[in-house]
Here is the input.
Amino acid sequence: MLGGWCFLLGVIIIYTLLFMATIKSFEELEIWQIARELANNVFDKTQLSSPLSKDFSLKDQMNRSSGSIMDNISEGFGRGSRLEFVQFLSIAKASATELQSQLVRCLDRKYLKNDEFVQLNEIAFKVGNKIAAFMKYLNTTNIKGQKFLNRGTENEKQPTPKNAKRQTPNNENKEGNKKNIEISNNTKQQTPNNIINSKSAATPLGAYPHARKVGNLLFLSGIGSRNAKDNSIPGLELDSAGNILKYDIEAECHQCFANVKAVLEASGSSWDKIIDVTVFLTNMKNDFPLYNKIYTTYFESVQACRTTVEVKSLPTPIAIELKVIAAI
Here is the structure.
């Protein structure tokens, strides 16, 4: 239950974040909030009570790196231009990576205990990944930013051609109707009614589609490891009562990822456009190491944000299910 609420909250945050028009100030950005938390934690570790406080050079570098993440996110937002925002986000992400290297130096010099290092490094890694996902979206959207609102294109500023004045009212109506039809068609493509189902993925178990388009985003329903042809689950053995005797998490991972890929491509998206992944495992302790290794081979170049949660069971006797958000 908790995992489900966490996932829902994550979707709301990501969805709000990606549509910049709803963000009124940089303080509302989740990436800035995480960066602020990180900067405060780093500052606390560099105070007089810490051995790090005597290494003036390193502690100054760490405070500047963590502060740079916050400041570049806010400055990029304040520029009011999509391309400038991407530029400053790139600097912020680089600062997060720089801080991770400095944290390793602290660990090597025994300034930080292992659990302190893990905590700070995870936050730095998290904010870096979320910044990368945001940059990826901004690089694919047509939104120009506040700076360019109400600015017409060169074509829009040109005077109306003389022959346009000679059109009869009937012609004008026809042209107007034609434009209205085109606008209507374009609007249809952007409405939440863009529902996708793929024959290359197992049939949904209930009244829901494989995916749904909303603006420039694609939201996939939970997709597991059932085979599209016969609903079989690779490597699964059940007893007469339907209890699991044996399952193969490796085979299920590959089938699950193949199903996700099929839905993405049927929706006009692709694997490299994945932004956020929530993974549900039924046996975290036993399956996480192998699942994580396989996941890395598929997602290493994608660098999508990820959350992995354990659930007691899934609707069918599968061991893994993915919930994905991607760009179109």
